Amino acid sequence: MDLKLIFIAFIGLFYCCNSQKEGNECINKNAKHCGECIQAGAKCGWCTDPDFLKQGETVSSRCDELQSLIKRGCNETLIENPLGKRKILKNKPVTDRSKTTGELKPEDITQVQPQKVSLTLRSGEPQSFELKFKRAEDYPIDLYYLMDLSFSMKDDLENVKNLGTSLMNEMSKITSDFKIGFGSFVEKTVMPYISTTPAKLLNPCTGDQNCTSPFSYKNVLPLTNNGATFNRLVGEQQISGNLDSPEGGFDAIMQVAVCGEQIGWRNVTRLLVFSTDAGFHFAGDGKLGGIVLPNDGKCHLENNIYTMSHYYDYPSIAHLVQKLSDNNIQTIFAVTEEFQPVYQELKNLIPKSAVGTLSANSSNVINLIIDAYNALSSEVILENTKVSNNVTIEYTSRCKNGVINKGENGRKCSNISIGDEVHFNISITSKGCPNNTSPEIIKIKPLGFTEEVEIILHFICECDCHSEAVNNSQVCSSGNGTYECGACRCKEGRVGRECECSSNEVSTEDMDRTCRKDNGTDICSNNGECVCGTCECKARENPEERYSGQFCECDNFNCDRSGNKLCGGHGRCECRKCICDPMWNGTACDCSLDESTCLASNKQICNGRGRCECGICKCDDPKFQGPKCETCPTCPSACAEHKDCVECRMFHTGVKKDVCEEECNYFTMRKVDTKDKFPQPTDKSYPLTHCKEKDANDCWIYYVYTVTNSSEKVVYVLDKPDCPKGPDLIPIVAGVVAGIVLIGLALLLIWKLLMIIHDRREFAKFEKEKMNAKWDTQENPIYKSPINQFQNPNYGRKGAVL
C-alpha cells in the first residue's frame, strides 16, 4: 500500500512539474536574443538592463514572463514587449438601399465591410477585426443554363425553348438586372463514348430520328438580358446522341467556369444551372478513349466550341470545386429523380451548390431554379485563401436572432433574408515568424460572391531595440559580437556572456579550475557548466526554479516551507534563504507581525491576558483559552464571580458584608432605577454581561458587568432587588378542600350513573328472555292426561254369552 501511495505521489509530481514546464513558454524557448524571445509567446518579454543578470545566469534568463521580470528586479521601462496592432485601410460601408436613390452599378454595391485590413502580428498574440455582411436588395444576377442534349433529353428541350422569357419574368421579382445564357453538352468525340463511323458522326441517332453531330460543349448564347433571343437560339438546337450512359458534363462545367470572357460573366451573383438525366464522367475515365493528359483548367473555346475534349481528360471533382470557387459560381444541379442521390453526394463536395429534382420533361425547371437560388442566397459561408503554416484563423459568427457559432460553424450564417446584416469576428494568430518575413496577403470572401476582404499580415520578428544594435561592439570582447538589447549576440564560433571565448577553448582544465568554489567541490557545484571560466547554471525542469551564484551554489527552491508553500507563500527564496515580505518573519516567513488577528472585540490584544506571537495569542495564564484568551473553562462565570461584592456594596448584605470595603473596591458601581437604563450591546464598543443572581434573602438582584476600553471595570446595578412575596394559605387550603369535595361528588355521580346503566341492561335482558319463553302442553314431557280409556275384550264377538 505504501509503495502504491509513493508511486501515485511521484506521478502527480511528474505531471505537476511538466505542466509548469509547459506553462512558461518563455523560459522553455531558451532564447539567445530578444527577437527569439518575443517569438516564444505573447507573454514573453526581454530585459534590456545590462546589469540585470546575476552571477551564473545565462543570457536566456533575460527572457521571461513580464511579471516575473519585474519581480526579479527589471525596471518595467527596460522590458522589450512589442505588441501587435490593427489598421483598417479601406472601410466602405455596406449598401443601404433606403438611403440611395437611382440605379446603382454592380461595382457600386457593397455587401462586405471592411474591404482592406492591415494586421501586425506578434507571435501568440491574436489580432481580430469585425467583418460585416449585408445581403443587398436588387443585386444583379447572371444565370447560365447548361443542358445535356443527349437523345434522352429530347422532350426536355421542348420545354426549355420557352424558358428565357418565363424565367426573365420570374427573376424580375428578385432583381431588375438579370442576364441569362445557354450552353449544351453531349460527350467527348472519341470512342468508346460515341460511334466514330462516318454515318454516326453525321447522325448519331437510330431509325428515322434526325440528330445533330455529337460534340463536347457549345456556348450557344453568352449572357444576355434578351429573353426572346434565348428562346430563338434554344429553339434552333437539336438533340444529339452518344453510346454510354454517363455524360461529359464536367468538361462543360470547367469551360463555363474558366471562360468568363466568352460566357460574359459580370462581377455579380453567378448561377450555373446544370440540367441532365444521367451521371457524369470524371478524371481517369478519359483513359478509356486513350486520353491521359490531365485537364489543365484553362479555356479552350474556339467559335464557342470546346476543341480540346479529345486531348485533355475530364476534370476531377476537386479541380472543379477550385475553379467554381475561384470564379464565384454557385451551381444548381437540376437532375431527374433517378440520379438525385448521386448529385446529392456531389453537392456535399461542392460548396454553395444545390440539387433540385427535375421532372421527366423539365416542366418544373423555373420553380426549381427559384427555390435553389433562394436556398443558396439565404446562406453565407466565408472562405479564405491558403495561409502559411504558422498562421491560424478563427471565425465566430453572430447571425440572425442572436445566434452565435464558433469553430467551423463560425464561418457561416443561415436563413438570411434580403436586407439582413450579420457579423463575423475574425481572429488571426501567428506562431513564430515565417521564413520569408515579407508581408503575407490573405483574402476572405463569402462563397459565391465576388466581394472580398484583403488582409495584409506583417510579422514582428525583432524587438524595437534591434534597430539600435552595435555591430562589432567593443563590449562584446573587442568586436566579437553585436551588442543589442542589453546583451551580446556572438559571432559564429564565439561563446560566453561577452563573447570572450572561442568555442574550442570552452573545456580547458585551466578554465574549469576557476569554476570551483574550492578544491573539494564539483565544477559549478554540479549545477551548471563551465563556459569560458564562468559558470553557466543549468535549467531545471520547472522553469520557475533556478540555480544562481558564481559557482551555481545558490537556488530559489531549497528554502524552508510552511503550509507546503515555499517561504510560506510570504517571501522569496534567494540562495536557499527566505527573504520575507513586509510584516512577516521566521525562517519560512510563516510568522506574521500583524497583531490585528490577536485584537479582541474589546480592542485589547488577547483580551489583556496574553501576548501576540506570529499572529496567534499566547495566553499568560494557562487557565485561559481560545483564539484570543477569551474563555476560562475552570473559572466561575462573571456574574457568579462578582455577585457577593455587588450584593454587599449595593444592599449591605451577603457573605462579604463585613469585608466589603477591603475586597470589593475593584470596580466602579453605578445605580439605575429601571432595567431599561441598563447599557445595551449596541450602545457600547466593549462587551457587556447581563446578570441575574439571588441574594441572601432569596431576592433577585440585577446588574450589568463590563470592562471598558480603558480596562476600567464598571457594574450597573438595579437599586431595588426583586423579592418574591409569600403565598396566601387560606385560598390555597380552601381551594384544596373544595377540590377534594368536588372530586368526591364527581366520583359518586359517576358511580351512580354506572349503576343505573347496569340495572337497565339487566332488566332489558330479563324482559327479552321472558318474551322468548314458550309453554306448549303437548310437548311437556311430564304432563299426564287425566282421562283413561279401556276396551272391553268381548265387545264385538258373535254369540257371546251374557
Automatic annotation (TrEMBL):
GO biological process, one term: cell migration
Transmembrane segments: 729-751
Major subcellular location class: membrane
CC per GO annotation: cell surface; focal adhesion; integrin complex; lamellipodium; melanosome; ruffle membrane; synapse
Disulfide bonding pattern of the chain: 26-463, 34-44, 37-74, 47-63, 205-211, 259-299, 399-413, 433-691, 461-465, 476-488, 485-524, 490-499, 501-515, 530-535, 532-567, 537-552, 554-559, 573-578, 575-606, 580-589, 591-598, 612-617, 614-660, 619-629, 632-635, 639-648, 645-723, 664-699
A Pfam match: Integrin_b_cyt
Compartmental location: Cell membrane; Cell projection, Invadopodium membrane; Cell projection, Lamellipodium; Cell projection, Ruffle membrane
SMART domains, per the entry: INB (SM00187), Integrin_b_cyt (SM01241), Integrin_B_tail (SM01242)
Domain Integrin beta subunit cytoplasmic: 752-798
Membrane topology according to the record: Single-pass type I membrane protein
Protein's UniProt keywords contain DNA repair: no
Annotated protein name in UniProt: Integrin beta
The UniProt record lists the keyword Transmembrane helix: yes
A GO molecular-function descriptor: laminin binding
InterPro entries, per database record: EGF_extracell (IPR013111), EGF_integrin_1 (IPR040622), EGF_integrin_2 (IPR057073), Integrin_bsu (IPR015812), Integrin_bsu_cyt_dom (IPR014836), Integrin_bsu_tail (IPR012896), Integrin_bsu_tail_dom_sf (IPR036349), Integrin_bsu_VWA (IPR002369)
Domain Integrin beta subunit VWA positions: 33-463
Domain Integrin beta subunit tail: 639-728
Signal sequence extent: 1-19
Keywords: Calcium, Cell adhesion, Cell junction, Cell membrane, Cell projection, Disulfide bond, EGF-like domain, Glycoprotein, Integrin, Magnesium, Membrane, Metal-binding, Myogenesis, Phosphoprotein, Receptor, Repeat, Signal, Transmembrane, Transmembrane helix
Record PROSITE patterns: I_EGF_1 (PS00243), I_EGF_2 (PS52047)
